[in-house]
Amino acid sequence: MAGTVTSAGAAGASTGEARYRRIYVWQRPIRLFHWVNALAITALFSTGLYIASPVLTSTGEPYDNFVMGRVRQIHFVAAFVFAIAFMWRIYWFWFGNTYARSGFPYVWRLAWWKDLFRQAFDYLRLDFGHIHLGHNALAGLSYTIFIIALGWAQMFTGFAMYSESNPGGFFDGLVGWVLPLLGGSFRTHMWHHLFAWIFATFAIVHIYIVILDGRQYRNGLISSMIMGRKFVRVDDEDESG
Ligand code: HEM
Ligand code: HEM
């Protein structure tokens, strides 16, 4: 689904004109996952902080206000949305286009390690570097650690705490064993809380890097997560692997 676009005065063109291809990279399900995931995590993080430290206490009887109850309710709804979107993304890893699998940490392949270090040095030197239409190795690694691994950790600890309100119920049977494994309910809360801050750190670094990357490569990176298409110069070679 590539089209050719001509851009007058684009950087690096000796004639003052560079020719671009427009390539469909992020399919609709991937984009949908991205924004659902980003919104769910924002809701989970802010409601989670309130659960841990309820700064806004209401006056009057709790049953008239139900603030904490409502905040927990939002946290749980967002948690189910997060979990469903997560499974949906895993499905699209297998059934999506080639970019849906890009950046995956093939740690057993030398080429993946080379791409990882090359990308890190490109960022450090603010170098135009190498073209990736999908995720580069560094991005793929960070999504695997900070969204996939941490996402599982949040779901296991979160649903384990959730199961405490219904002993012997479905979630107790599914993940109730996590509580004794981590040393009890309090410690599970603390792990969940720690992971929440790692998510927040990821989000800040992620937003910084997409802005930097979009500026550096001039490839329409941010709009690509909205409309799906990226720009690449006709003579550039995609190194997504
Ligand atoms: C995805 C599934 C998730 C589930 C099922 C879940 C569930 C829960 C439950 C049951 C609690 C305890 C509520 C209480 O004690 O009243 C909790 C607390 C909390 N959650 Fe989640 N959560 C999930 C994901 C997340 C995510 C992704 C974040 C942050 C990005 C987050 C941040 C927090 C925080 C900060 C707390 C307070 C922990 C404390 O200090 O006690 N949660 N969550
Ligand atoms: C204004 C906010 C945001 C913008 C503009 C943005 C933009 C982007 C862009 C352009 C990509 C593709 C980058 C690449 O090629 O590697 C991406 C990927 C991704 N972003 Fe964001 N992002 C934002 C917020 C977030 C937040 C808050 C999270 C979660 C904490 C998040 C999680 C992800 C994930 C998991 C991917 C990989 C997507 C996939 O392969 O399914 N993003 N984002």
Walk me through the structure.
The protein is built from nine helices and three strands, in the order ββαααααααααβ. The protein has 241 residues and is mainly α. It has a single domain (28-219), classed as Fumarate Reductase Cytochrome B subunit. A three-stranded antiparallel β-sheet has the order 1-2-3. α1 runs antiparallel to α3, α1 (28-52) crosses α8 (185-217) and α5 runs antiparallel to α8. It is elongated and about 70 Å long. 19% of the residues are buried. Residues 30, 33-34, 37-38, 41, 89, 135, 139, 143, 147, 199, 202-203, 206-207, 210, 221-222, 224-225 line the site of one protoporphyrin IX containing FE (HEM).
In short:
This protein is mainly alpha-helical. The protein has nine helices and three strands, in the order ββαααααααααβ. It has a single domain, classed as Fumarate Reductase Cytochrome B subunit, CATH 1.20.950.
Which structural traits does this protein have?
241 residues, mainly alpha, 3 strands, binds protoporphyrin IX containing FE
CATH topology: Fumarate Reductase Cytochrome B subunit
Distance between the termini: 19 Å
Q: What is the topology, as strand order, of the major beta sheet?
A: 1-2-3
Helix percentage range: 55-70%
Write the element-wise H/E pattern from the N-terminal end onward.
EEHHHHHHHHHE
CATH class category name: Mainly Alpha
Q: Provide the structure class.
A: mainly alpha
- CATH H level: which superfamily? Transmembrane di-heme cytochromes, Chain C
